[in-house]
Amino acid sequence: MSSALVPALAVFALLGVVLAVVDVRTRRLPDAILMPGGAAAVLSLCAAAIGVGEPWRLLGVAGGAIGAFVTCLALHLARPASFGGGDVKLAGLCGAFLGWCGPEAVASGIAAGVVVGGVAAAGAVLAGARGATIAFGPFLVLGTWWRLLTGPW
Q1: One-character DSSP codes across 79-91
Q2: Cα distance between residue 77 and residue 89, in whole Å
Q3: What's the gap between Cα 55 and its chain centre?
Q4: Could you tell me the pLDDT band of residue 81, with boundaries at 50, 70 and 90?
Q5: What per-residue confidence (pLDDT) applies to 2?
Q6: What domain range is 8 assigned to?
């Protein structure tokens, strides 16, 4: 990993923590935090691509963002009460960072978040909390960080 990528990852880490806390507390991912924070994170990621002399990574960043967004939009359209619009936008941001590593990272990182979130939801149902809701944003961030920390750069 290049040192030029560290600021982008720091912005994403800070934003991820803030959004996870807000989502757990309110079950919402507010645009007032997600949109400007996401823009700053993606711009820093773009600056890192240029800084390391690999502008081709911008295609991966864009492709990852679009792929994750569209995939999660399908989940939202299928189950709007279970997978909110904020989760879709957050998935696009996560996909941008995963796209730095490649399409496999996008697929595995988003899938990991969906699977872990599904396991948590199943656990809540099994524990007798049928009407309970879970915050899905933290699981998307967790799946993204899992893939970023375990995969090749």
Answers
A1: -TTTS-HHHHHHH
A2: 13
A3: 22
A4: confident
A5: 76
A6: 3-150
Q: What are the tens digits of pLDDT across the range 103-146?
A: 999 999 999 999 999 999 899 888 887 777 889 999 999 999 99
- Give whole-number Cα distances, 89 to 6, 104, 129, in Å: 23, 20, 27
H/E run at residue 138: helix 137-150
Please tell me the total count of domains within the chain: 1
Q: What angle do CA 60, 65, 70 make, to 5 degrees?
A: 125
Is the CB of residue 134 less than 8 Å from the CB of residue 120?
yes
pLDDT of residue 153: 62
For residue 116, how many other CB atoms are within 10 A of its CB? 17
CA dihedral sign, ordered 26, 29, 31, 33: positive
* Cα angle for residues 135, 140, 142 (degrees, 5° grid): 100
